[in-house]
Amino acid sequence: MAASLFTYSSTSRRVTPAPNSPPLPIHIKATNVVFNPDIPEVHRGLGLDDFVNFLTSCRLRYAISDVPSEFFPEQVCEFYYTATVSEENNAITGTIGRGRHSVFITAELLSAALRLPLFEPFSEPPTIERCKRMFDQLGYDHSKAGTRSALILRQCMTAGWKFFTGALCKCVGHKSRSGDQLSNYEQQVVCSLLLNKRLDYGALFFDQLVQLLRANVRADHVPFPRWIALVFDKFFAADYFSHSGNPIQCPRMSVRMYQDDPLDSDIGISDRMREWIAHPYTMPSLSADTDDGGADGDHVDHADQEVDHYDGGHSSPPPSPHLTPVTGPASSAPQDLLSQGSNHLRGIISLRGSILLKGSNHLRGILSLRGSILLKGCLSLRGSIHPQQLAISLQGCNPAFQLLQEHP
């Protein structure tokens, strides 16, 4: 079992535990870790480079590598201890700041915090049967499974894919015990990436967190601690940094993940993955003007057409140069904007500077308004809106306003 990085025992009378909260103490363990792309010298040039390059350029590149500006384990643990799931709002609500601040997480908030791609329409996740067929195509050796033949085990994979699945599942997972067995959730994440599925990863991750919170007995360790902190850091910063305790370093993937050297007979990375490496998925940051994924910060989305076949790289997937991109103004929006009449803005929208919107305006998606802003006429804002944020957004000069995408 992973060692505890932090142990939480509330002493505040303001903190009200959820009805099915785990007994104290609660632990932060090395789960949901930050991806470590640094291959140790002894393992360089042995075939891991392609796998590492893919993980740093795929659709989940931010979800596996982003860290909050500060990681406050006490805040994250308190939220887990007090978290309840609201069926009506499809949100997880809890407290931070020793009971002083109420905060919430939705699938839309999680998607925005992890900078996940927005597809329209989304595709269904692959079935478990489809995942098993794909692992067979990657060289899965059933003879190594023994009595656990019904499971998907990393020990049955060739070394390169054993590293790939282990690293990805450590970054997007929540298990504190052995990572040898891939859960259904982990199989769907791995296969969706390799099959190029236009998956609603935000909904998948959120649903997994909801399932863990609804368990009859919650685990004594916080699931997805890094992601929870990212949501608070981006959307509830003032509350997150108050009464926060002492920060610690986010758990990082151990170099021990590199202990298995790929063999010459290992199935190589596919052409599809090589294309991703050449054209990494990037998305404008919610808190920065540019993104480090492109030379000039422009949005680049080379997430191509879904591929429902996979042969380990021995044939190229069908060419498909375009996936419905996030629409709306470019991330490097003009500093001054005058918009009159009927306007339909949708997707990831960044409006900065002196902004005047008049007439019938329909704003939908992840919206960032900065500067001196005046909204007039018939205005339609769609998505998950925090009342305080909405009130601020309609007043003169404001630092930022976030509007979360409403899924079709």
Automatic annotation (TrEMBL):
Residues 1-14, 329-339 have a biased composition (Polar residues). Residues 296-312 have a biased composition (Basic and acidic residues). It comes from the Eukaryota. Residues 1-21, 287-339 are annotated as: Disordered. This is Uncharacterized protein. It comes from Lactuca saligna (Willowleaf lettuce). The lineage of its organism: Eukaryota, Viridiplantae, Streptophyta, Embryophyta, Tracheophyta.
